[in-house]
Design a protein that fits this description.
By secondary structure, the protein is an alpha/beta fold. Helix content is 38%, strand content 17%. Helix 1 links the parallel strand 1 and strand 2.
Length: 356
């Protein structure tokens, strides 16, 4: 198939997890024989932080305006087999209106934050999607499952809704056996005001209570006003190729979930899969449906409060810690790689197009 993708970014991973997901997915689609053109809106914060300016597995087009994009590339877009529009694309509503207006080319929407999108739609405050646009997409791809799928179908009239969960790139994420832990607990993720309270509860509080412990937080956009415990190291940004080393330098890694995603459930994060693929045991807050992805106590550890985290860090047997990490890695490699998602996406597209 000839696929057109409008995405937030594939060239820069700065401040977003979209680029890592797109890179693995697009590469695996190309390996399956598909031709992909990726359209990315020029943005100054991406332009100065491009860690993959020319992806080798797709044609990448940087555009400065919709008029330029559709004026110059309109014919090419009109000859595609599918057009996929991702969430958070600048002027995403206008992009969606243009591509769904073309009757000869089916269009899909790929939502990287479905619970957040649903909350924004309910408040009429979504900048990249609006309610009357949802049923115009032939296929809605959701990063979350469970109740999200029903709400999209029955409340917003989506034609076809399918889960396309985050995935991991096993060529980037694997155990580095020569590494030794530098930190007892680490966290990787951009700042989010709704994610900061659980991060404070599950990392900062244990760090303040256990001064002999070692902790680390990596990710951009954290306010300078945050008072990190003195035994917590901070890293502003780590490109995808450095995630593996960061995870491998931790005894445990922390996964925290935004409140919208916790409420809806069935929303595994990309960082969760990345850490597990590196064989690093994950401590996570609880959300409905987590059992569908990892077995609590065997493949993942669940923490409700700071005391749970401290107990894992100070009392969990070392042999069991290593075994838990390996079981989680095996689960990810069996079901949650970029190759799995590419195969799933291909099947969804073919089915939605009637097998054509």
């Amino acid at each position: 198939m000839k696929l057109i993708i409008f995405g937030l970014s594939i060239t820069s991973s700065w401040g977003n997890g979209h680029a890592t997901t797109y890179r693995g997915l697009v590469r695996e689609l190309a390996r399956r024989g598909h031709r992909i053109t990726f359209f990315e809106r020029e943005a100054p914060w991406h332009a100065t932080n491009r860690d993959l300016p020319s992806p080798p597995y797709c044609r990448t087009i940087l555009y400065s305006s919709l008029e330029q994009c559709f004026g110059y590339y309109g014919g090419e877009i009109g000859n595609a087999d599918w057009v996929i529009v991702g969430s958070y694309v600048p002027e995403g509503i206008k992009v969606g209106e243009r591509v769904t207006r073309r009757g000869n080319v089916p269009a899909a929407f790929y939502d990287f934050d479905t619970p957040v999108t649903l909350a924004k739609l309910a408040a009429s405050a979504c900048g990249y999607l609006q309610a009357d646009l949802v049923p115009r997409y032939k296929l809605y791809l959701s990063c979350a499952g469970g109740a999200c799928l029903g709400e999209l179908k029955y409340r917003y009239g989506a034609q076809t809704v399918r889960p396309l969960y985050y995935s991991v790139d096993p060529e980037l994420h694997y155990p580095e056996t020569e590494l030794r832990p530098l930190w007892d607990l680490g966290y990787l993720g951009s700042y989010s005001p709704v994610r900061q309270p659980p991060l404070e509860q599950l990392l900062c509080h244990p760090a303040a209570s256990w001064q002999e412990g070692r902790f680390a937080v990596a990710g951009p956009q954290y306010p300078a006003t945050i008072n990190w415990p003195p035994n917590t190291e901070r890293f502003e940004h780590l490109p995808p190729e450095r995630h593996r080393t960061f995870y491998g330098s931790q005894r445990f890694t922390l996964n925290v979930t935004r409140s919208d995603m916790t409420k809806m459930g069935h929303s595994p994060s990309m960082r969760l899969f990345e850490a597990a693929a590196c064989g690093v045991p994950v401590i996570s807050d609880y959300w409905r449906g987590i059992e569908d992805f990892f077995v609590p106590g065997k493949e993942i550890l669940i923490a409700e409060n700071s005391a749970d985290v401290q107990r894992y860090l100070r009392e969990f047997p070392e042999a069991e810690r290593l075994a838990l990490g390996q079981r989680a890695r095996a689960k990810v490699l069996a079901a949650h790689t970029a190759a799995h998602r590419a195969q799933e996406l291909e099947a969804y597209l073919l089915a939605a197009a009637g097998g054509k």
